[in-house]
Write a structure and sequence with these properties.
alpha/beta, 185 residues, globular, Pectate Lyase C-like, eight-stranded mixed β-sheet, 18% helix
Amino acid sequence: MKKIFSALLLAVLFTSSFSAIANFPVKISSSNRSGDDRDVKNFNGVAAGGPINVVITLGSTESCRFEGDADAISTLITEVKGNVLIIRPQNSWTSWEHKYQDKKITAYVTAKSITSLTMSGSGNMSVKGNVNSKTLSATLSGSGTIDIKADDSIKAVISGSGNVNYSGNATVEKTVIGSGRVRKI
């Protein structure tokens, strides 16, 4: 029971942190192009939310590129806090989703290593390649999906109807609140 309460508390805190962070005004430039490269560095975790799809590739560099609707992309903020690349809207996710409903946005992230993945909302997050961290934390709140391949250890926490799909030979510690599933594919 204590474990379930802790997982639920973590999911609620994460979701509310997006709302709190989104209230800070940030000035960004707008462009009419359908792709936007962002300068990001020094991260080993990725956190995103809403209906955005995030594709993470493990490599020797660090980068983030958005593709999709130019107006929607221009309102997205990327920042690194505590070694986590955070992708969020300038305002709240609720108003962003309402305004840019049916606009497909994909973030292509390249990372040197990954130790944590966090998705809040209906978006999907996938890692291309084998995650080589001792323990990978995958936290999902909402109806989205996280797809990963790992051979060591995965700590998965789900709050909602989303799924964490994994391949590889990792040992898995899971906490699920709701109808979501952690499954080997």
